[in-house]
Amino acid sequence: SSNCRWVLTVPAGRVQVEIIYSDIETSANCAFDSLEIYDGDYVCENTKIAAVCSRYPSGITGTYLSNGTSFLLKFKSDGSVSFTGYLIKFIQVEEAVSSNPLTSSDDQLMLGIGIGCACGATATLILVFIVSFFKSKCRSPKIASPRVKTVEPMNGGPHMRTPSVNGSVDSSDSISHSRNGFIRRPLTTSRRSSMIDGKSNGFLP
User: Fold this and answer.
1) Distant-in-sequence, close-in-space partners of 42: CB < 8 Å, separation ≥ 6
2) Is 140 helix (H, G, I), strand (E, B) or coil?
3) How far is CA 148 from CA 114, 145, 203, in A?
4) CA 6 to CA 68: how far, in whole Å?
5) Which pairs with CB-CB distance under 8 Å and at least 24 residues apart come from 164-167?
6) In terms of Cα–Cα distance, which of 176, 2, 202 is closest to 86?
7) Helix residue ranges per DSSP H, 80-179
8) Which of 25, 43, 144, 195 could form a disulfide with 33 if both were Cys (CB 3.0 to 4.6 A apart)?
9) How many CA atoms lie within 13 A of 178 on its CB side?
10) Portion of the chain with pLDDT greater than 70, in percent
11) Geometric angle at alpha carbon 138, from 136 and 140, rounded to 5°
12) Rounded distance between C-alpha atoms, residue 100 and residue 92, angstroms
């Protein structure tokens, strides 16, 4: 007439239970006496992984591993026919460690090197572009040679003639010239005579 429960818990990792020996009354569906193992710390039909009810030496033995950090063991028996019971051992099992723990680190290192090379190449191209751009902007433009402009006379074409002293056209007088931006006009008859009179009177050098 027993109804017992034990919760086997480990602080980390998983629980491994080993049934070393069992000598329990045999019955259909373990209706009289039974030992049940549940994955977790509560009783639930969905988490039951074993039900033991068999006589020694044909008793069930085996090893079970939990998904979490605990197992629940439940033992029940009726009020008649007794047997010796069972022997169980349980241990804590650490999580499996990768056989090559440096693999992920190596992958990350290679990925970092690849990203670094790509960034370096991109930065170099950008720097070359910037240097070329400023170099082209800083070049001094070529100084173009000044264009000579021909200045035409103010009145008339290139064959304009000026009147002579006697009123006729004097071909010896030159046409209007452009020198330093000033226009030199040919002298008329009255201006010539006045300049001659002034010079003779000592007014002009």
Assistant:
1) 72
2) coil
3) 64, 9, 40
4) 16
5) 164/189, 165/189, 165/192
6) 2
7) 102-138
8) 25
9) 10
10) 59
11) 100
12) 23
Instruction: Answer whether 176's CB lies under 8 Å from 153's CB.
Output: yes
Both tokens of residue 93?
């099992």
Burial of 15 (0-12, 13-18, 19+ CB in 10 A): buried
Tokens representing 192 are: 């010539």
φ/ψ of residue 168, rounded to 5: -85, 170
DSSP assignment string, 29-68: GG-SSEEEEEESSS--GGGEEEEE---TTS---EEEE-SS
Give the position of tokens 């226009």.
Answer: 183
pLDDT of residue 24: 93
Looking up tokens 């040919």 gives: 186
Q: Position of tokens 């304009």?
A: 160
What pTM was estimated for this model as a whole? 0.46
Retrieve residue 180's tokens.
């330093």
Over the stretch 17-49, which tens digit does the pLDDT of each residue have?
999 999 999 999 999 999 999 999 999 989 999
